[in-house]
Amino acid sequence: MTTSTTIVWLRRDLRLDDNPALKEASKIGNAVVPVFVWVPEEEGQFQQGRMSRWWLKQSLKQLAQSLDSLGSPLIIRRSSSSLQALMDLVIHTQASQVFFNHLYDPISLVRDQRVKEGLLQTGIHVRTFNADLLYEPWQVNDPSGKAFTTFNEFWDKCLNMPEEPHAPLLPPTRSLLAFAGHLPGCTVEDLELENNSEKDSNALLARSWTPGWINAEKALEAFVERHLLQYAANQHMVDGSTTSFLSPHLHFGELSVRKVFYNVRIKAVQWTKEGKPDGEQSVNLFLRSIGLRDYSRYICFNFPFTHERLILQNRRPFPWRVDEGLFKAWRQGRTGYPLVDAGMRQIWATGWLHNRIRVIVSSFFVKVLQLPWTWGMKYFWDALLDADLENDILGWQYISGGLPDGHELERMDDLQIEGYKYDPRGEYVRKWLPELSRLPTEWIHHPWDAPPRALRAAGVELGSNYPRPLVEFAAAWSRLQTALREA
């Protein structure tokens, strides 16, 4: 059937490169109308936080410029309903096709099904594509056809599928045919993704981050060429640039996971030819982190309740403590445990956190403070620049004993040991806790044990300019064991 116009609904796929919905629409030869619809109300409690909205704003600007250069401008709509906005555009353009790429978080799964059904009921042809994963969730199952519930089994299956993941698609190779008439819409500024009170703080983000799909490709190239080889050696050190920093680019779909996968694999082949065997471990570890991102979507697709309750429900509900005071102290980095406080202040200042520190602060939240894991997950969603619901769900399920291969809830890591393992010189703590910057390294991760003379020399007054531990570790351990026996 010949159609005159194809609408491409863009969401978290803000790129031209390896964008199946856009690529397929461009091949048909009809007018292509790319549209972004801003409907925060549909996200419920998971509306984007300040830093995430700042990133989205910059990303949309670059995408709009790129689409303009192809001759088919990005149509931006502010609406209270994605379905209604798309239907209005269908009527205006007389389009008979809508293409979009899949999303897998619990909120999007419900909305996208409702949109698809609504369009189909009015005779609109709908095509959907995989732009976010190596393999679709329904392609990866155990021998009985059931979903995996452990990451190692899932990832082993992905690496041994009969067919390799699809190679990344090139951007449209020719100008897109634009719709001939006028299409009403709004500008990126009209979406009010930041207000006046946020602009000064947001301006600081631009010093460290460069959103947009073109910048994402540059960031990937820089990581692969300069840092990937040492990834295995440096991945757990939290006081420097030891990670890829690709997570926000991946979340907003400025970069496809397939492109990352293939670029890294190509580099591995090159290193093998050059006789650099050390690269193999780094490649495997980095690809494993990419696999965990895919696994987060896999879990959300197969267990769509995971933003509300744990996957494992083999015990009575855990008696979480509902304590707003503890929650506030954790958010503000005032717990008295330096590694936790440094991490929480970094989130507050930058919206980003090394994965190891994410594990440490969330484990402290769940096991030491014993606050509801859903509170912590929601705070991460609100505060992180790379806030990603699927990743957040997987991480908090993992820490809270909700996954078969996750942390046992009764496991409580010693923060002093963790500190010297991941921040051995204390530079990370000193950067984010200036009140402890003069404290000798031997006390930096447990200032409560420092002799009074050392504290005075460093200008540290516990209980005044730096808090004493909010809860005693031994008491928290005892309380956790009691709660587990009762659960």
From TrEMBL:
Q: Which SUPFAM superfamilies match?
A: Cryptochrome/photolyase FAD-binding domain, Cryptochrome/photolyase, N-terminal domain
Q: Which cofactor does it need?
A: FAD; (6R)-5,10-methylene-5,6,7,8-tetrahydrofolate
> How the cofactor binds, per note?
Binds 1 FAD per subunit.
Record's InterPro entries? Crypto/Photolyase_FAD-like_sf, Crypto/Photolyase_N_sf, Cryptochr/Photolyase_FAD-bd, Cryptochrome/DNA_photolyase_1, Cryptochrome_pln, DNA_photolyase_1_CS_C, DNA_photolyase_N, Rossmann-like_a/b/a_fold
**The Photolyase/cryptochrome alpha/beta domain, residue ranges:** 4-134
Q: Which Gene Ontology terms of cellular component type are present?
A: cytoplasm; nucleus
Q: What is this protein called?
A: Blue light photoreceptor
The molecular function GO annotations come to: blue light photoreceptor activity; deoxyribodipyrimidine photo-lyase activity; DNA binding; FAD binding
Q: Which domain of life is it from?
A: Eukaryota
Q: Where does FAD bind?
A: 231, 243-247, 286, 386-388
**Positions of the record's site feature: Electron transfer via tryptophanyl radical:** 320, 373, 396
Instruction: State the family it belongs to.
Output: Belongs to the DNA photolyase class-1 family.
Q: What is the organism field in this record?
A: Adiantum capillus-veneris
Q: Which UniProt keywords apply?
A: Chromophore, FAD, Flavoprotein, Receptor
Q: Which GO terms describe its biological process?
A: circadian regulation of gene expression; entrainment of circadian clock by photoperiod; nucleobase-containing compound metabolic process; response to stress
